[in-house]
Amino acid sequence: MRFNTQLAQLGRASATAAQAVNPPLVRASTTLFSSLAEYKKSYDGVVFESPRYGRTGTGTTFELQTAMAALENTESCIATASGLSAIAAVLLSHAVPGRQILVFEGVYGRTRTLCEKELNRLGVKVRFFSSEAELRERLEAPTTLVYVEVPASLTMQMLDVEAVCHDAHAAGVPVACDSTWGTPAFFHPHALGVDISIHSATKYINGHSDLMLGLITGTYEALEPARTWCDRYGSHVAPDVCWLALRGLRTLGVRMQRHQENAVAVATWLRGQERVKAVYFPVLPEDRGHALWKKQFSGGGGPFSFEFEACDEAAFSRFIDNLQLFGLGTSWGGVDSLVMPAIPHHLRALPVQPDEGRLVRLHIGLADPQDLCADLQQAFEQM
Ligand SMILES: *Cc1c(COP(=O)(O)O)cnc(C)c1O
């Protein structure tokens, strides 16, 4: 089945018995078994994949996980409470005191905090790398995991994931990848060699800005540490959240196409604006990461960044505060368009001087791009 057909068909195994087109929402703490034999059997199965106890999921959870594993063309999926909780499960389950975890410098801000505050506290040596060559050099010391994200949050820097996997595997080290930006519509991490793929399904997979959810995919073997960690630490996500995410997932294909079209239209327009110093969006042919994007992605979604020509804080505030169609807030992936100041010295190791150009992250939603450009234009004029 092709992608959009899969989206329409997957995750409906329990719908037939319910005589409904969609799977039923099953809420439960206690799971009941018809016999001692059935009860015992449930503990032979894979945890988070079959009814055992509410904490490890119900039929609704399994429908979403099965659909997502199929879309990522792999064996298994674990749903968690948020994207960050999925990241935490993967990183902490690979934490071995005295060994190192190698992390791409451009990762999501809270991933970095987790590495610097929690992993370091556990005696794990976290080392950041900014290029494939730097990674190769660092792989010489005993390493339990290589962790990447493409493109990098905010800076939109690209990385050659296939090369990263090749080098990590040669050293016997698994690779985890935050695949949130590309989604299964545009990015196939396991085909590039990634062992563990992580999604903040809060974003495009749900697509409606109304829930928090994380998804981890991979083979049974690759997910074994994270699965055990989630089981032991009581990781859980409500079936209601999975049910809503499955509804959002149905339209992922059409939404992503439109997000891409709109984002390209707005980013292209922005490149010609006098206040704009640079646009960071690898989908644009002029972008420094375009070749690597083209090699690894079949499309690109809404979030991208742009940098202002030098301006003072008051002018910058007038731009942000006068936007009408862009909400000021974090996260992305819904219908709505959003603006967020990406303060580099706060989120990244990039210093910024008071009058230097400021970096802004836009998420381009499903509004008409002409109206979005007109809104940006009037906000530039207010500066
Ligand atoms: C938002 C985001 C996360 C965190 O996900 P939550 O669901 O908000 O916890 C992780 N990685 C990336 C790339 C994100 O954009």
Nearest-integer average pLDDT: 95
Overall CATH architecture of the largest domain = 3-Layer(aba) Sandwich
SSE string, helices as H and strands as E: HHHEHEHEHEHEHEEHHHEHEHEEHEH
CATH fold description of the largest domain: Aspartate Aminotransferase, domain 2
As for the number of domains, it is: 2
Q: What is the level 1 CATH name of the largest domain? A: Alpha Beta
- The helix-and-strand class reads alpha/beta
Ions, cofactors, ligands: which are bound?
pyridoxal-5'-phosphate
Overall, the morphology is globular
CATH superfamily annotation of the largest domain: Type I PLP-dependent aspartate aminotransferase-like (Major domain)
Rg over CA atoms, rounded to whole Å, is 21 Å
Tell how many strands the DSSP assignment holds.
12
> Could you estimate the helical fraction of the residues in percent?
25-40%
Task: Give the tags.
globular; single chain; alpha/beta; binds pyridoxal-5'-phosphate; 7-stranded mixed β-sheet; 5-stranded mixed β-sheet; 2 domains; 383 residues
Fold blueprint:
Blueprint: H1 3-9, H2 36-42, H3 59-71, E1 76-80, H4 83-92, E2 100-104, H5 109-121, E3 125-129, H6 132-138, E4 143-149, H7 161-170, E5 175-178, H8 183-186, E6 196-200, E7 214-218, H9 220-232, H10 239-249, H11 252-271, E8 276-280, H12 290-296, E9 304-308, H13 313-322, E10 326-328, E11 337-341, H14 344-347, E12 359-363, H15 369-382
Parallel strand pairs: 2-3, 2-4, 4-5, 5-6, 10-11
Antiparallel strand pairs: 1-7, 6-7, 8-9, 9-12, 11-12
Helix pairs in contact: 3-10, 4-5, 4-9, 11-15, 13-15
